Amino acid sequence: MSAKSHGESEPPTTEYRAWKAMRDRCRDPEHQSAQYYAARGIRVCERWSRFENFLADMGRKPTPKHSIDRIDNDGDYGPGNCRWATPEEQSRNRRNVHRITIDGKTATVAEWCAVYGVNPGAAMARIYRGMPPMLAVSTPMRRRR
């Protein structure tokens, strides 16, 4: 099947644009985002060199707000490490987000704070001061006088 026979590139669908942008930032050292992808060694799997395979594995975007997201930010783009994610999901999946594991479940500090009703900023300050993460997110806040 030729590059244009899939009917997605003229005019380009949102999935085709996502696929092309993903490949460009991982392959082009001159790309404006290359420092976050190509320079870090992030690659696109060989299977996804063809748009048809990418679309077969990922499917259509669930909503216009969704964009491609790597589950493991240090991993490559490929069927086992990618999903369509909302901006909120992506913001919780950044490299600078602090994750902790409690009772075998890993989540962000902010997610644990929502469970325990603790301010995320206060919990992070506690962690930076050396408090164990479990206590930092689960210890109730003291009331100010």
CA-CA gap between termini: 71 Å
- The tally of helices reads 6
Trace the largest sheet across and list its strands.
1-2
Largest pleated sheet: 2 strands, antiparallel
Number of domains: 2
Tell me the total number of β-strands: 4
**Helical fraction:** 25-40%
Strand content: 5-15%
Low-confidence residue ranges = none
Summarize, please.
By secondary structure, the chain is of the alpha+beta class. Helices cover 34% and strands 11% of the residues.
Report what the structure shows.
This protein is of the alpha+beta class. It folds into two domains: about 15-90, no CATH class; about 100-140, no CATH class. The protein has helices at about 15-25, 50-60, 85-90, 110-115, 120-130, 135-140; strands at about 65-70, 80-85, 100, 105-110. It has a two-stranded antiparallel sheet with strand order 1-2. Strands 3-4 form a two-stranded antiparallel ribbon. The longest helix is centred in the N-terminal third of the chain and has 14 residues, at about 15-25. It is elongated, with a radius of gyration of 20 Å. The chain starts with 13 loop residues before the first helix and ends in a 7-residue tail after the last helix.
How would you summarize the topology of this molecule?
Blueprint: H1 14-27, H2 51-58, E1 67-70, E2 82-85, H3 87-91, E3 99-102, E4 105-108, H4 109-116, H5 120-128, H6 133-138
What are the salient characteristics of this protein?
145 residues, 2 domains, two-stranded antiparallel sheet, alpha+beta
